[in-house]
Amino acid sequence: MDYPTLLVQAAVNGLVIGTMYMMMAVGFTLVFGIMRVVNFAHGEFYMLGAFAAFFTYAQWELPFVVCLLIAAVTIGVLGALLERAIIQPFRSDELSGMIATLGLSVIIQNAAIVMWGPTPRSMPNVIDGVLTIGPFTFPLSRLLVIVAAALIFAAFWVFMQRTRTGRAMRAVAQDAETALIQGIRVNTIYPIAFGISVALAALAGVLMAPIFSVSPFVGLTPMLKAFVVVILGGLGSVPGAVVGGLLLGLIESFTATALGSLVADILQLLLVILILLVRPWGLLGQKEA
Amino acid sequence: MEASSASVVAKASESRGASGRKLLTRVAILATLAAALAAPQLTTNQFYLHIANLALLNAIFTMSLGLIAAVGQLSLGHAAFAAAGAYISALGALQLKIPPIFGIAIAGLAMGVVAAVLGTILLRLRGVYFVLVTFLAGQVCTLIALNWESVTRGANGLVGIPPISIFGYALSSRLQFYYFALAAFVAVFAFIWALMRSQYGRAFRSIAENMQLAESSGIDTSRYQVVAFALGSGIAGAGGAAMAHYIRYISPDTFTFHESIAYITMLVVGGRQALLGAVLGAAFLTPLPEALRGFVSVQHIIYGAILLGVLLFLPGGLYSIGKLFTALMTRSEKRK
Fold first, then answer.
1. Which of A35, A217, A245, B49 is deepest in the core (most CB within 10 A)?
2. Which domain range does residue B152 map to?
3. Separation CA A143–CA A210 (nearest Å)
């Protein structure tokens, strides 16, 4: 394979992984920005999304758009309920809230093992075929992920910028008390925000399910990457999560091509620890007072 | 004059009450120790002994995690220190023929030094940032253990690790290791107990309570945090090494992120406020999964559910039940 082809393919692969990281990180950072909760169960909602895709698309053979909708709605509602029941009691106690999400992640993952077994399953591609532009060929299945993720993120962005609820969420993220004084029901905003956050994770799971395999253990890596991305971009910063996610995907794809994926992983984690120490508020985040 | 004599009387009666309680505590400690020494003689069941050994080791891990938590920091990389300690001692014994008992000491010292160095850098972060960085550091350790195959033999792990031997007397049976683990447990317990009652313990608590206030009262907060982190991680390293010489096998799966969560669970379920809480948590949660052998996932679900239940409904952990009980007792006594 010649050089330009290799580079272009690394770029496309990087964008595919990058959009997944972006969707994971945006939801993760949203919850942190609004509720100050580090959600250690975030990856498990990705895993649930992947299983939702497996059942609705591979087994029941529903149209893919319907599968996306089903996953987003069911897992989003589940997330909102879990927030109300388990995370809300720890509003004033960051550390206990985080420990609660650890417990939640253990329960969800092992419930998945009990219900669906630990063996990885594979899923068929949503579309086959390739797109050829000049000397380059792109598999359509990868392009679909990029396009779908871009559309989902655009919808999320419009929701946050244009709707009442989206504006209310941003207000709560800035200052919960002031938002409360303005008549925003903070206690209903929290479950909605959490639901949207985990719905984004679930959608990432649906999109990636045909590319990676589906098993109860698939949530850990995306969650780790979400941590890395939000530290890069700044905890609580949505633009930081977008830029950080895409950047990390591309960097990872190129370094893995050049150095092997393991070295790339270790280097990445060390880089993030370094950034945490020098600039704990991230590359694009705001310094906390 | 009158006022001062009244206060003397009050002090005298108070100290009488205190000395009575002290005596009671001493008797309770002696009785517990005697029971712990005698218990294995009553059973020949190897399985119960194994559980007791694991509970003692888990108590050591949980107490050391609690020592770090005492300054208000939560480490999600605690198992990584145990793993590194285990590998150091195991490799020392296998390749350099270092006696395991020295290997354990070396592992503890090495991890203490590593944690002190890391701590001076990492402990600038607080709260969730510190948790995230310890989580990521733990992941780095697991990746290294998996991939540095020439030394760690990767996923296969190290086999045939020799047991601990003292003056040429090998502690190869479960019963022999039980007494070793018990001694180690008592030593760690006594050490942390004394530490928490010293000037250090008071400084730790004030840092956990209010960092700014502690700092403006002239407490060197970063130094005390590093001390707590180094001691806690050092104990974890030594504990991990002891575990390696007990189960005689170590792999990247022995101490993972899940073990770090398990120690946090034990700490929270037992009670974060007191040293005894860590012990209660380990004693309660170590045997629990054995009731569900063969259903590992169900065990984990129950672990998670207990963790959530305690967090939600019993924030002080199991320890606070005992506290509640004594409070009720003294109240009824006063009524008499």
1. A245
2. 45-255
3. 13
Interchain contact, B300 vs A38, CB within 8 Å: no
With contact defined as beta carbons under 8 Å apart, do B259 and B107 qualify?
Answer: no
Preferred mutation among A110, A266, A288 to probe B, highest tally of B CBs within 10 A: A110
Kindly report the nearest CA distance between residue A179 and chain B, in angstroms: 24
Nearest in space to B270 (alpha carbons), one of B229, B306, B235 = B306
- Give the number of other Cβ atoms within 10 Å of residue B285's Cβ: 23
A103-145 pLDDT per residue, tens:
999 999 999 999 998 899 988 888 887 888 877 778 888 888 9
ipTM of the complex: 0.85
A19 to A28, A75, A236, B114, B173: CA distances (angstroms): 14, 20, 18, 37, 55
Domain count, chain B: 1
Q: Do B128 and A99 touch (CB under 8 A)?
A: no
Expressed in angstroms, the distance from the first to the final Cα of chain A is 52
Is B140 inside any structural domain?
yes
SS (H, E, C) B89-124: HHHHHHHCCCCHHHHHHHHHHHHHHHHHHHHHHHCC
pTM here is 0.85
- Residue A131: its H or E element: strand A130-133
CATH topology of domain A3-278: ABC transporter involved in vitamin B12 uptake, BtuC (1.10.3470)
Q: Is residue B289 part of a domain?
A: no
